[in-house]
Amino acid sequence: MMNKGMKLPVRALVLAMGLVFASGAMAADDRVASALNDIGMAYNIDQDGDYAIVISFDDDRTQLVFVRSAVYDSRGVVMRDIWSPGYVHGSDDMPADLLSRLLSENVGTVMGNWARENREISYVVKLTADASATELRAAILEAAEQADELEKELLGSDDL
User: Fold this and answer.
1) How confident is the model at residue 25 (pLDDT cuts 50, 70, 90)?
2) How far is CA 94 from CA 89, 97, 117, 126, 127, in A?
3) Once rounded to an integer, what is the mean pLDDT over residues 138-152?
4) CA 80 – CA 139 distance, rounded (Å)
5) Residues 67-119: pLDDT tens digits?
6) What does the alpha-carbon distance between residue 52 and residue 46 come to, in Å, rounded to a whole number?
């Protein structure tokens, strides 16, 4: 299921991230590296110290997922974000019917939710920073599957 035939745009992006990190960037959270190594997930680290993972599916599609190194405290619980882009719109005017639909879908999601930032819609899972490797794997796969389905439906492409 992992890294079998990355599409060229994703491969170029992930390789570039590794080069940027090698040239001196923010520190990555070693807990994430340890968990990813434990579950055998290949990764690169971007300029923000975030982990970039390419998930390969049985239908030869791939999906890019990020695990943030930066964490935040929410009422005494230290959390991190795992997210995967599912849709990029051509302008800042995102279709209202799409936003309404995704907001409604959020009610039925268990692990994560849809979020919009500028022209991008991503599936975001919030996870405790000390989550086990198994929990991190589940969050990564959930984000990848949800985002890939949206990309397939709305864009018909496999570039994210």
Assistant:
1) low
2) 7, 9, 10, 24, 28
3) 97
4) 11
5) 999 999 999 999 999 999 999 999 889 999 999 999 999 999 999 999 999 99
6) 7
Confidence of residue 160 (pLDDT cuts 50, 70, 90): confident
Contact assessment for residue 13 and residue 64, using Cβ atoms and an 8 Å cutoff: yes
Give the three-class secondary structure for 14. helix
Q: How far apart are CA 114 and CA 11, in angstroms?
A: 25
Q: Contact at 8 Å (CB) between 91 and 120?
A: no
Q: Which two tokens stand for residue 160?
A: 């994210």
Q: How far apart are CA 104 and CA 20, in angstroms?
A: 38
What is the length of the chain? 160
| HSE, side-chain direction, 13 A CA sphere, residue 63 | 26
DSSP per-residue letters across 127-156: EETT--HHHHHHHHHHHHHHHHHHHHHHT-
Global pTM reads: 0.83
Q: Give the chain's end-to-end CA distance (angstroms, integer).
A: 17
Residue appearing with tokens 């985002």: 147
Helix axes 133-154, 30-38, angle to 10 degrees: 90
Helix (H) or strand (E) holding 37: helix 30-38
